[in-house]
Design a protein that fits this description.
With 370 residues, this protein is an alpha/beta fold. The protein has 14 helices and 14 strands. Strands 3-2-1-4-5-6 form a 6-stranded parallel β-sheet, sandwiched between helices.
């Protein structure tokens, strides 16, 4: 990016076009935090899907959220009018789509920065080339690189890519109290009293056995069930199943194979409630899904079961997150349905997941009996 006369003090209002998937949105957090550092006095607006309020509700690095759920061709025109009415000085496009650049250009945002993907170079004032390392480094650096280039434009240099990304989310105490009441309302005792007749005062274990965009990413439901029962039997744990409405069927399959009835929250919470629940969990065990990134950003112990996908670029970016995988020669295949015997997932046993989970909880909270 070439040096220009653009000055940070001239940028009063910034719009950021965010990503469309929950996991990707979490991976933009370090870039959003760096953007706030680079432009501390600017008003920062994030444009993303309607679920974003639940994720960014307590974010201290944003001033405003604008919701963009595309419904028909009129959506682009409405978004363009909305952006123009806000008189933005700068547009940062994390999303790679042509449409994002089109809206920014037609809305007459004077400085438009993003990757020159999807045939949109002419619509950007600063079209960035894809980094040579794209696909080899974690996706968090893909978004950070945009802020790196922006800071070079403004100040001539940047050390954004040399520092450890700050990847944390916060949930306030009021929301955590609401999460506690929500769990109680669905049968979880969080004060040492009885859950389904058993005095359970052990850790709160969250399981996310589904995945919205790939059946191949799902560890078998009978293994989640066996794992959950072991947590209850050996640790007096409270097990809660979480996930979206699209994952209800698989959560019911897990619950139906358990000897103990879990707390069923799958499909019964909005994203804000799910984030708050994860913020008070002692551990999340999940497939390669959005909640993995959320729990890791909340700095909760997170164990992710990987099979057909590649963790190199999309694993949860946190010291509190660990992976468990037994990749065969065909992995990572990135397929949504396994054409053979799902060996990448069936190679992982409940025993090894339970053992790793116990190690993680003991390290995170030595007072937890494991």
């Amino acid at each position: 990016m070439k040096r220009s006369k653009l000055k940070a003090e001239d940028i009063k209002r910034v719009v950021v076009r965010g990503t469309n998937w929950v996991g990707d949105a979490v991976m933009t957090i370090p870039a959003l935090r760096e953007l706030r550092r680079v432009l501390p006095g600017a008003h920062l607006t994030l444009v993303t899907r309607s679920w974003s309020e639940g994720l960014f509700r307590d974010a201290d690095f944003l001033d405003q959220l604008l919701i963009y759920d595309r419904r028909g061709m009129g959506s682009v025109a409405r978004a363009t009018r909305q952006w123009r009415s806000q008189s933005f000085d700068l547009a940062i496009l994390f999303q790679n789509a042509f449409e994002a650049a089109l809206i920014a250009a037609v809305a007459r945002v004077p400085v438009r920065v993003g990757y020159g993907t999807d045939g949109r170079r002419a619509l950007l004032t600063h079209a960035l080339p894809l980094p040579s390392w794209h696909g080899e480094r974690h996706e968090v650096f893909y978004y950070l690189n945009i802020i790196y280039e922006l800071e070079k434009l403004l100040r001539g240099s940047s050390d954004v890519m040399e520092r450890e990304p700050r990847f944390d989310l916060r949930v306030n105490h009021a929301r955590q109290a609401e999460a506690t009441e929500l769990l109680k309302a669905h049968g979880a005792s969080l004060n040492g009293a009885s859950l389904n007749g058993a005095g359970m005062d052990g850790p709160l274990i969250a399981l996310c056995p589904g995945s919205t965009n790939s059946r191949a990413k799902r560890w078998p439901s009978e293994r989640y069930a066996a794992l959950a029962d072991r947590f209850v039997d050996e640790m007096r744990a409270r097990v809660v199943l979480v996930g979206s409405a699209e994952e209800v069927e698989v959560s019911h399959a897990v619950a139906g194979q358990m000897r103990r009835q879990p707390v069923m929250l799958t499909g019964r919470t909005d994203l804000s409630e799910a984030v708050a629940v994860l913020s008070i969990a002692d551990l999340l065990i999940t497939n390669d899904t959005g909640p993995a990134h959320i729990a890791a950003a909340l700095e909760r112990p997170t164990l992710v079961i990987f099979g057909p996908t590649d963790p190199t670029t999309t694993r949860p970016f946190s010291q509190r997150a660990q992976l468990i995988r037994r990749p065969p020669e065909c992995a990572p295949c990135m397929l949504r349905d396994c054409p053979i015997d799902h060996r990448c997932m069936t190679a992982i046993t409940p025993d090894e997941v339970f053992a790793r989970a116990c190690e993680m909880m003991k390290r995170a909270s030595p007072e937890v009996a494991v």
